[in-house]
Design goal:
heterodimer; A: 42 residues; mainly alpha; 1 helix; 0% strand; B: 568 residues; 22 helices
Chain lengths: 42, 568
């Protein structure tokens, strides 16, 4: 039974499709809405 | 509680067990029991991921947080969407293609059995204890608010969950999670509706939110960079990112959810559901708390929301002090109500002139409640007492209509049970796959492993229930357990960063890095000079130290060695 070895490190690659961009854009919109809420109801 | 509400809770508990047991079809093999034969649709997995994350502590504690502190707690989740994107690109495809049962199984292929065993052991200890806390925290609150026996409440939450999780495996966990999520969201919608319709006739929703906003309840985002401030934009964005990466990428209770998905893409979509919906859902929960705050501006609210503690003080030798405080509270409360009504009755221009009077009146109420809470801690010895945890359940049981009380109590049960079920299921998986099958009995029939898996689920259910019974008597233990978990959350993330992103990393580097990372976080958390740093930054410290130390030690010890049985 091996205790300290190392298998091959994986190739990370990228798969940044439009859906990921959409997630991040949506988060930016939600953050902006939260900032507006704080400002409007201050 | 009215018999109709009792019936609703009883029907819910019966239904959830029956439904979970019914879903045990196809779980006659280990692959089906732990991974549903990798056949589940993304939306079911996605709802299960969200239900697992949302415990009863989240539901009750977060509404209390909204009541006391407004929307700012939402910043805790700011890093989550980005974390989901990163995980969708990195670990999700790796875990799926590796065909693993546990996240730690993957680490053995990369670093050897010591790293796998160490990380899996840390998971078992922290999740086993936290599972007890997840049962104990709502049980304490429900038993106080509803007048139930504490042991009965713990068993009412724990026993049905253990039964359907043990019999039905991950199929039962996932599909009951889906239905429990529906119960939770329906309950929240009912609470919000009652809160809005209960506002005084002269007070519109907009005016009510302006009043809440005057005392900071609508401030969600704080851009100050202060390491000692728990919730800021930066601690949420950076610390929250590391915490979410660790929780969703390295914690078996979440990893196992998306390992059940049909394909890599379905698993990715299940995580992205949280990326889309988690922050809006938390805003709704926090806004519910803000609306409860507004509700209790106009309706009589007790000075302390925990009647048991209030009774204990009244029976103690400090009762006169408490009576004097209560008188002071009644006067402060009436003054605040008058100030709130005045402010809600005027337009934007008029509000400015009345704002300061309301802010002062609210400060006076907070001051009296703060002194009453200190009195509770002194008299009862419950130093971890948080009165705000009792606010939402008190509102539900006192002011919600018959029928909806039962629905909300069922929703609190659902939130607790969905998290407990996923944790029991993942604890059993790590126990059987990473320890029993890997170290004790590598060769046995599938039926044997299935039987052991069910026994492991029952064992962890029993363990969590016993922990819960002790935890309720040791209030500060809950904090200790939560803190204990934060000591190595970021560190385990560091090990996965080494595995996935540092090509020359080896097992010695990963193991030493993990130990140094945990020691570093423990030192930062406990040293007087740094103990005030927000726990969200602990995840960053742990991950960075493990990655750095692990990479250096790997270089010093000769980099990668021969591969370890990649087919295991």
């Amino acid at each position: 039974m091996a205790t300290h070895g190392a298998g091959p490190a994986p190739d990370l690659g990228t798969d940044l499709s439009a859906i990921y961009i959409r997630v991040l854009v949506l988060e930016a919109v939600v953050l902006a809405a939260l900032v507006w809420l704080g400002w409007h109801f201050a | 509680m009215h018999w109709i509400d009792w019936s609703i809770v009883g029907v819910y508990l019966t239904w959830v067990v029956w439904d979970g047991v019914r879903l045990s079809r196809g779980t006659d093999k280990v692959d089906g029991y732990f991974l549903a034969n990798r056949t589940l649709p993304w939306w079911a997995v996605g709802l299960s991921v969200m239900a697992t994350q949302m415990s009863a502590i989240t539901l009750v504690g977060t509404t209390g947080q909204g009541y006391a502190d407004g929307l700012r707690f939402v910043q805790f989740y700011f890093g989550l969407p980005l974390a989901m994107v990163i995980l969708s690109v990195t670990v999700v495809p790796f875990f799926h293609r590796a065909r693993v049962y546990t996240a730690y199984e993957y680490l053995e292929r990369r670093f050897g059995v010591v790293t796998r065993t160490l990380t899996s052991f840390l998971f078992l200890v922290s999740r086993g204890l936290s599972c007890g806390v997840i049962i104990a925290a709502p049980a304490v609150i429900l038993s106080v608010v509803l007048g139930w026996d504490l042991t009965f409440t713990i068993l009412a939450i724990g026993a049905p969950t253990v039964v359907y999780t043990m019999v039905g495996g991950v199929q039962a966990v996932t599909w009951t999670d889906v239905k429990q999520m529906v119960v939770i969201v329906t309950g929240l919608a009912a609470a919000v509706t009652v809160l809005i319709t209960s506002l005084p006739e002269s007070v519109g929703l907009g005016s009510a939110l302006h009043v809440a906003g005057a005392v900071g309840r609508m401030q969600a985002v704080d851009f100050r960079f202060d390491l000692n401030e728990t919730y800021t934009f930066w601690s949420g964005m950076i610390g929250g990112l590391f915490l979410a990466l660790s929780y969703f990428g390295c914690d078996q209770s979440q990893v196992q959810r998306y390992l059940t998905a049909k394909s890599v893409d379905e698993a990715r979509h299940s995580l992205l559901m949280s990326a889309y919906w988690k922050i809006p859902l938390q805003v709704v929960i926090l806004l519910t708390g803000v609306l409860v705050f507004v509700f209790f501006l106009f309706r009589p609210a007790p000075m302390l929301f925990n009647p048991v503690h209030a009774g204990a003080i009244a029976a103690s030798d400090r009762a006169p002090e408490y009576t004097a405080l209560d008188g002071e509270y009644q006067r402060a409360f009436e003054a605040r109500r008058a100030a709130a009504e005045a402010m809600a009755a005027v337009d934007a221009a008029g509000r400015d002139g009345l704002r300061q009077a309301f802010v002062d009146a609210d400060t006076a109420v907070r001051d009296v409640r703060g002194r009453a809470t200190d009195l509770v801690k002194a008299v009862t010895g419950d130093t971890a007492y948080r009165d705000v945890n009792y606010v939402f359940p008190t509102f539900v049981t006192t002011f919600m209509p018959i029928g909806l009380v039962g629905l909300l109590i069922a929703a609190i049960f659902a939130a607790a049970m969905s998290s407990i079920a996923a944790e029991l299921n993942s604890l059993a998986t790590a126990t059987v796959i990473d320890f029993y099958r890997r170290l004790l009995k590598p060769v046995a029939t599938d039926a044997h492993y299935l039987a052991v898996s069910k026994m492991a689920t029952a064992f962890w259910g029993l363990f969590a229930s016993v922990v819960a019974m002790y935890a309720v008597n040791l209030g500060s233990l809950i904090e200790v357990v939560n803190r204990f978990g934060s000591f190595f959350y970021g560190s385990i993330l560091g090990v996965f960063v080494l595995a996935l992103g540092v090509r020359h990393a080896n097992g010695i580097g990963a193991s030493i890095g993990l130990l140094v990372g945990m020691l570093s976080v423990g030192t930062v958390a406990l040293h007087p000079a740094t103990s005030s740093i927000s726990f969200l930054w602990h995840n960053v410290i742990g991950a960075v130290v493990v990655t750095g130390v692990g990479a250096l030690v790997s270089v010093a010890t000769g980099g990668p060695r021969a591969a370890v049985d990649p087919d295991r």
